[in-house]
Amino acid sequence: MKNGFRQSMAWLHTWCGLLCGWLLCAIMLTGTLSVFREPITRWMQDRPSVEAAQAPAQDGLHALDHALGQAMRHLAEQAPQARFWRIELPAQPGDAMRLVWRSGSSNHLASLHPATGALLPGDQGRTTEGGRHFMTFHYLLHAGMPGYWLVGWVSMCMLIGLVSGVVVHRRIFQDFFTFRPGKGQRSWLDAHNATAVYTLPFLLMIVYTGLFIFYTSYMPWPMRAAYGTQASAYQRFQAELLHQAAEPADRPRTGIAANLVPLGPLLQQAQTLLGQPARIMVVEQPGDLHMTVRVIGRVDEDSQAAQGIHHPAGSVAFDGVTGAVLQIQHPSQHARSATEQVHGVMESLHYARFGGWPMRWLYFFSGLLGTLMVATGTVLFSVKRLQKSAQEFGQATPAVYRAIEAMNVASVAGIAVACIAFFYANRLLPVELPGRAQWEIRCFLWLWLASLVHAALRPPRLAWVEQLATAAALCLLLPLLNLLTTGQFGLHYALQGDGQRSSVEAVAIGLGLLLAAAAWRTQRSSRASGSPLRPRPATRTASPAP
Fold first, then answer.
1. What's the confidence (pLDDT) of residue 478?
2. Please, are residues 105 and 81 in contact by the beta-carbon 8 Å criterion?
3. Domain boundaries, the chain
4. Residue 149 — φ and ψ, nearest 5°?
5. Residue 282 CA neighbour count, 13 Å, CB half
């Protein structure tokens, strides 16, 4: 710790940023990619277009009623004793109607044509976590509760780093317009400052809202004091917080057989009550006197972009035998309590659930710049120490610096390799491989670990160049891989009107070009310097770290 307030803040900013920066790069990059989790999932599932498979026999509401009737007949034949039946209605043209039911300890899937109700072939896409993988890694690191708490700790450290960075900044407005390329350490500092100033409001918002939406987990003591420590405490807290309408009484299976009312009229009634299109229908206790039908609405963020930030989805619960309404959760903001609106706004801000696609692109670019800010900060530490060692660790300083350099390579370039390799695993793993979604995640984690081993074995600059070039090549070749494995590519998707899947490959190409430029620039800098940099021995006491 240094003497003086500003020097202490500079010390705190340096070491807090370095120790958390390695993990922050991965958390921020995966969080940035998860902004487009739906398009990524759609690309990775690789489901065939329904229109290409069969021509619809009917149109409009009558066709949907017919398809729902077919769905109920199929579910009654396949799973009469299931705990629930779930019907996922098509979200976009070309999507199939998806049926899910739980029998025993496993879920089962089937797909129907949304207009004819015909059962589609079993090959309806690849089993994958898709974009949810990036979102789950973003807040859990795929490590359960330890990962959850580690992400919370790193997020708090990032808040400290942002605040201490503002304190040590003397020229925050001037730094926004300052970048001096080709100046070595000064260029890295300019890039770190410029990206930090540009993204500061976004980063403060995204970190604060990320901690806020999990406040009952990170700070559970107030809730425990008011609601106790029983398993039902959280549910009672949420019910009071959200001012929910009274839940239908618990309706256990009676063993008395009963017929399900037609779902088509219930669907239309629910859409009228909610003012939203339906997304999912769930039949609980199917075939029993106590059947319940829940209709959950779909939020169209693009059409509601001008109506505010918080757009909750509503739901309606019906008695499955009589069709009587049991519960309504209105989506209207005016029907929500102040506490629910505050919580909903925080979630919408963090998950970019407002403003439609323009807002998601703004989040994506801001997230990339924020990741770049953290990456330049970690690299800046090594660049400065390689020019002039501060001898913080005595005789072990060169070894510690070498370990830091390897961590820098793996956390910046290695995580990029692992992310794009996740897409390759999706296309190269056998479609019928049991647990293939978990194998995709294992490939991601193993390749990230391999990048650390590679960075530790290779000279630092060569490791940077090789990993950046590998990530660039994988990004640029992704459309070719897709063509070879599925027969489709970005232009094909675009001609079908599927902008989401075509944009995945377009973004991959764009990122590939940026990574290739970074690899070329690093290679050129390495040649100019003559050899891989190594720490120079200290000749005098080091100045305060940035």
1. 96
2. no
3. 57-124+244-335, 389-530
4. -70, -35
5. 11
